[in-house]
Automatic annotation (TrEMBL), chain A:
Lineage: Bacteria, Bacillati, Bacillota, Bacilli, Bacillales
Official protein name in the record: Sugar ABC transporter permease
Source superkingdom: Bacteria
Statement: the UniProt record of this protein carries the keyword Membrane: yes
Originating organism: Cohnella zeiphila
Topology of the protein relative to the lipid bilayer: Multi-pass membrane protein
UniProtKB/TrEMBL annotation, chain B:
Keywords carried by this UniProt record: Signal
InterPro entries: Bact_solute-bd_prot1
Phylogenetic placement of the source organism: Bacteria, Bacillati, Bacillota, Bacilli, Bacillales
Chain intervals for the UniProt region annotation (Disordered): 32-59
Protein name: Extracellular solute-binding protein
Leader sequence residues: 1-29
Length: 324, 588
């Protein structure tokens, strides 16, 4: 929104003018920059319609909302929906699962793509590099439905993984992976790594290309080996990219969707597979308790904003990096 | 800096300005909408009253100008062909109506989709809402059909004459919100499609053994799998159940009451004298049933993947022909069985047996519930409810029913000596290539749209309305099926089941069709208990035999902890008021 002046001359207006002149200047500014304003207007409207108008719906969280009634006829219940929410054991279980799975994928989602990007960058053969990169990001375009099918059949009793394990004599009996509640978080994180590593590495590869080549030459002259170069040049070079992405994904910690969990999960592992969004769907929309669903998503949004600002503040203070 | 602050101030003011404009724009839009809505409903009623006088002389003189109704069906209809099939074209030609249909996918049941409709207020014109009707009624989305049926639907009225009370929504709200279409009026069963299933090749090889109790069933599966550990090179699966989503009810938990002689009341069991409802899992005899399933699992007879696989993997296993036994309903695994038929593997399809826990119990699956099925409703979004009800009524006429059930004369059936006869090639396509047959002919795709008579009812020409009558049913059996039935001295699977004549009609209908309150605690507790069932039943069945009792008791106490007793009390009241409504009895 903070558009730079289009014409350098507008910046030189003196601050001494009377209020009338000031007002005049305001309108003349607009007039002069009318194309800039016109160009940004659609986005302002878009943002407003899709991101601000729906917030009005939060009022539902404080009502006992009934679809057929108009706004003035709704019954207001204060914080009752939130009280029910915070008294439900299941809420804490799904919150735990959500945080655990998103935490795991947050950590894995940084370590693996960065590692992959750095290693790929060290490869000198261009064709190999290109092919590897293309192949590695293809899984990103495969839908979770298909991925879940592949994962369940690979991990099934007569699946590839079990064949391999028995062949290598690591286990005597086939293991039913999908029936083990404690392994569910790991399976989800693993599938996530397989699917997204290549895709997430693209941005780091791009950032690495932006590093000045002379730095490497200088380092080589000083006798730095490959690992030294990675540690002292490549990683610091993409540090700000990492920070920005990290802060942003902390904002998304609670909203991880529920497709993976729903598609990979089953009744045996539901204690570990149900996440906040699925809970909101089951207890909000499915049984037509819209107010309760709204309360859940409101909680979700508020916590996300707090997390985002906290992460941003901490990084600003200690790492001198921030996005706001 | 100074410049900058004026700058951001001006952009801010622009933002609020555009916002205000936008808000007022929205407001106007809303006004416009509501105005046009009230306009349309106002214009609908005069035209309604206008044609009311016209319709008194005949229902036949209905308006047949082309009209399109949008429709949503809560059950998947994978063969739907946008009315480009023979029956669909004939319906459009006769009534001028085109249905623009959308169906829920896979095993959706319409739950999320209909909840969203209720929240957004955007309804199709006509809806088959199944168990979700209550949400729409509470949202004020469904119109009361009482007067419309009275004025414009002579056929529906004639068909429902004794059952009008059963169409009413509840004792407190006696409006008619849905016309039952998910079953046939005065239906007689000529065939049994539930019970426990055994592959025909198993029956043949073992010389048609008696299969009456779970012990018999177990022995049969055990004996065969010992002889044939593999089928087509893959391991033979003795027993397969479907643990995915709500289908666990059909194949795992409902058989709990089926095998112990109780009727189907959804998740509940109702005491026939006191009308007290409780979750059916609490019956001690069902604990024994689940103990048997637990035993089947520990014996290695129940497939180990039962609770981890999804519906499509389950169907694929059946379609591979290596599953010896199922505990299900034919519609649940029908697509897989059809692909076995298409592949010519008729000996790997299934026969049905009324298996019970022991010989004290009697299978109640054929017990009649009377007219009480989910049905079709017209919403407030429908611009021309009169045309809609006339359309439904036309489908309920003799002409409409014959078209929907039999197809087009000269194509799907012929009249020979006053009898409707299905030619052999058509019958062949219908049995062996059902999904293609349904797609091109449309036979079987339109039954959810209109109330219809059930099997065994004859029209004025002395022919049956439906194609399910004893001769036709036998004709639809494959040779392998006929051979197996001969082995049991029976002509249809029904002959093996206790007849509905020996079982009284249920006073409270089918409780799985009863709509429950959407506000208050009931829905929340129900959802919680369902989740407990979802996760406890696998635990119970997969437990070590010595842990079974402990696990089952834990399951029941979890249910009670979640408030099951309170929920059962609410439900008992609903059942009592339903019996009052249906029978006029004074129930305390």
């Amino acid at each position: 929104m903070d558009s730079q002046p289009a014409f350098p001359s507008t910046g030189r207006v003196s601050a001494t003018g009377a209020s009338a002149r000031k007002k005049n200047r305001f309108w003349s500014d607009i007039l002069r920059q009318k194309y800039l304003y016109l160009m940004s207007l659609p986005f302002v409207i878009w943002l407003f319609i899709f991101n601000y108008v729906p917030i009005w719906g939060w009022t539902m969280a404080f009502q006992n909302y009934k679809p057929a009634k108009s706004f003035s006829e709704q019954k207001w219940v204060g914080f009752d929906q939130f009280k029910t929410l915070f008294h439900d054991d299941q809420f804490y279980r799904v919150l735990r699962n959500t945080l655990a799975m998103s935490g795991l994928s947050l950590v894995a989602g940084f370590i693996f793509p960065i590692l992959f990007a750095v290693l790929l960058n060290e490869v000198k053969s261009m064709p190999f590099k290109r092919i590897t990169q293309t192949i590695s990001y293809l899984p990103h375009f495969v839908s979770w439905v298909v991925v879940a099918g592949i994962v369940t059949s690979m991990l099934s009793l007569d699946g590839v993984v079990n064949h391999l394990l028995t062949w290598l004599h690591i286990s005597d009996e086939p293991i039913q992976f999908m029936a083990k509640p404690h392994w569910f978080w790991g399976i989800v994180t693993g599938s996530d790594i397989w699917k997204e590593t290549g895709w997430n590495a693209i941005i780091y590869l791009a950032a690495i290309t932006g590093i000045d080549k002379e730095l490497y030459e200088a380092a080589r002259v000083d006798g730095a080996g490959r690992f030294r170069q990675i540690w002292n040049i490549t990683l610091p070079g993409i540090r700000s990219t990492i920070m920005v992405l990290f802060i942003m994904s902390i904002g998304h910690l609670l909203s991880i969707g529920y497709e993976k969990q729903m598609l990979l999960g089953n009744n045996l592992v539901s204690d570990y597979s149900q996440v906040l969004d699925l809970y909101a769907l089951n207890y909000g929309i499915k049984i037509a308790h819209f107010s309760y669903g709204t309360a859940i998503s409101m909680f979700n949004s508020v916590v996300s904003v707090i997390l985002l600002f906290a992460a941003n503040g901490l990084f600003k203070k200690f790492a001198k990096e921030s996005i706001m | 800096m100074k410049w900058n602050s004026t700058k951001s101030l001006s952009s801010l003011s622009l933002l609020t300005l555009s916002g205000a404009l936008l808000l007022s724009g929205c407001g106007q839009n809303n006004n416009g909408d509501s105005a046009s809505n009230s306009g349309s409903s106002a214009s609908a009623s005069p035209s309604g009253s206008g044609s009311a006088s016209a319709s008194s002389d005949a229902g036949a003189q209905m308006d047949t100008t082309p009209i399109t109704f949008s429709f949503f069906g809560a059950d998947a209809s994978p063969n739907w062909n946008n009315m480009q099939d023979d029956v669909g074209k004939a319906i459009t030609a006769k009534t001028g109506v085109t249905i623009n249909a959308e169906y829920d996918v896979a095993s959706g049941g319409g739950q999320s989709k209909i909840a969203l409709m209720a929240a957004s207020g955007q309804y199709p014109d006509i809806i088959f809402a199944k168990g979700e009707l209550g949400k729409l009624v509470d949202a004020g989305a469904i119109i009361d059909l009482t007067d419309l049926i009275d004025k414009y639907a002579p056929h529906i009225k004639a068909m429902m004459k004794d059952n009008m009370n059963r169409l009413k929504y509840s004792n407190d709200d006696q409006s008619i919100y849905a016309i039952p279409t998910n079953g046939g009026v005065n239906n007689q069963y000529f065939d049994a499609t539930g019970g426990f299933e055994v592959q025909l090749r198993v029956l043949k090889e073992l010389g048609y053994p008696q299969i009456k109790t779970v012990q018999d069933y177990e022995n049969v599966l055990k004996e065969y799998v010992a002889k044939h550990p593999t089928t087509d090179g893959q391991p033979t699966i003795p027993l397969l159940l479907n643990g995915d989503g709500w289908k666990r009810m059909i194949t795992i938990t409902n058989p709990g009451f089926i095998a112990t002689g109780a009727p189907d009341d959804g998740e509940y069991y109702v005491d026939p004298t006191t009308y007290k409802a409780e979750l059916h899992y609490k019956r001690p005899e069902e604990k024994d049933y689940f103990k048997w399933l637990n035993h089947m699992y520990n014996e290695g007879l129940l497939d180990k993947d039962t609770f981890v696989e999804k519906d499509d993997q389950y169907q694929a296993k059946i379609a591979s022909g290596r599953v010896l036994g199922l505990i299900s309903q034919e519609w649940e695994y029908g697509n897989a069985e059809n692909s076995l038929k298409s592949a010519g593997k008729n000996d790997e399809t299934y026969g049905h047996f009324p298996v019970t826990l022991n010989d004290q119990y009697q299978d109640h699956e054929l017990q009649s519930v009377g007219v009480d099925f989910s049905g079709i409703s017209i919403t407030t979004a429908c611009k021309d409810p009169v045309r809609a009800i006339q359309f439904l009524d036309w489908l309920a006429s003799d002409e409409g029913q014959v078209l929907v059930n039999w197809g087009v004369e000269g194509k799907q059936y012929n009249i020979v000596n006053g009898q409707r006869v299905i030619p052999a090639d058509v019958q062949n396509a219908k049995v062996n290539d059902n999904s293609n047959f349904a797609k091109t002919t449309g036979v079987g795709l339109y039954t959810t749209f209109a109330p219809h008579y059930g099997d065994g009812v004859k029209d004025s020409t002395g022919n049956y309305y439906t194609t399910n009558f004893p001769d036709q049913i036998v004709a639809s059996y494959s040779d392998a099926e006929k051979e197996a039935l001969k082995g049991y001295n029976a002509t249809t699977w029904k002959d093996l089941f206790p007849s509905e004549k020996d079982l009284p009609v249920k006073e409270w209908g089918a409780l799985y069709n009863m709509q429950v309150p959407t506000d208050g605690d009931y829905a929340v507790i129900y959802q919680k208990t369902q989740e407990i069932v979802d996760k406890s039943i696998p635990k119970v069945i997969l437990a070590k035999p010595e842990d079974f009792d402990k696990t089952y008791d834990q399951f029941i106490s979890d249910l009670n902890k979640a408030g099951a007793e309170k929920m059962e009390a609410t439900y008992t009241d609903l059942v009592k008021s339903r019996v009052k409504l249906f029978t006029g009895k004074d129930v305390q």
